[in-house]
Amino acid sequence: MKERLYKPSVMREVLGRHGFHFSKSLGQNFLIDGSVLDQIAEGAELSKDDVVLEVGPGIGVLTQVLCERAGQVVTVEIDRGLLPVLEETLSDYDNVEVVFGDILKLNLPQLFEEKFRGKEVKVVANLPYYITTPIIMNFFEQKLPVERIVVMVQKEVGDRMQAVPSTKAYGTLSIAVQYYAEARIVTTVPSGAFFPSPNVDSAVIALVRRDRPAVDVKDEELFFRVVKAAFAQRRKVLPNTLSSTMGIEKGLLREALAMAEIDPMRRGESLSLTEFGRLADAIGEVLA
Q1: pLDDT 10s digits, 117-142
Q2: pTM for this structure?
Q3: Hey, what domains does the chain have and what are their CATH numbers?
Q4: Residues 6-24, buried b or exposed e (16+ Cβ, 10 A)?
Q5: Buried residues in 34-61 as b, exposed as e (16+ CB within 10 A)
Q6: Which of 164, 222, 259, 276 has a Cα at 20 to 30 A from 36?
Q7: CB-side neighbour CA atoms (13 Å) of 22
Q8: How far apart are the C-alpha atoms of 260 and 173, rounded to whole Å?
Q9: Angle at the Cα of 276 (from 251 to 247), degrees rounded to 5?
Q10: What is the pLDDT of residues 50-67, one digit of tens each?
């Protein structure tokens, strides 16, 4: 089917033909703005040499564009009711495969090996907002061969992903994402660009994976524990919040802060990734 699915008249016809009803629990909102689809594809910098993993294709609105610009597309859909819809809407494309399943429960290393055979993958998706963060972090934390991730997210979440220190949006998500990738908002998207319209505005964010993490740390698990603890009580200075959330004596924390050359009167929200790395390594030393 080569008719543009983002057109409301085409979308209504397809949905009506299959008797499809939207599921609020699955966060189903389909794009009806063709210019946004183009911006997503451009943010992914797609070519026929690329292989793409899409999550949550819906009726195939974005999938059409991916098939036309990339060499191979594998799309994962959790709603069994959409499978016959996708069989129709993607019938004219021979470079796409639909996988039924929950992306959070699939064996991702196995999926990547079976479908992509070691190639670098671009993840492109209009994600259900309630699973945005766990999906993105799964791709990074499992060290999968993902070159970049370009996804539609709630605007507030996109702002947090690219936030810098000492701003309201800066927090654990900012550091977790920026540790693995360079983050950039491609475009913002009003709620009216979807059917049905969500209650929030959205953003397309591009996450380009770094060749190596943004900071070298001796203990990655400890690094993220320190980050999480530092933001648990944002208004407290570091010795107080780290002591109460990690159970470390304040004297040892002051020693670690001195080793890391960080003023003990600072709050976690003011520390850069590099400073968090130094602090985590210093805490590891004083606790050894």
Answers
A1: 989 999 999 877 778 899 999 999 99
A2: 0.90
A3: 8-209 (3.40.50.150), 220-287 (1.10.8.100)
A4: beeebbeebbeebebeeee
A5: eebbebbbebbebeeebbbbbbbbbbbb
A6: 164
A7: 13
A8: 23
A9: 40
A10: 999 999 998 999 999 999
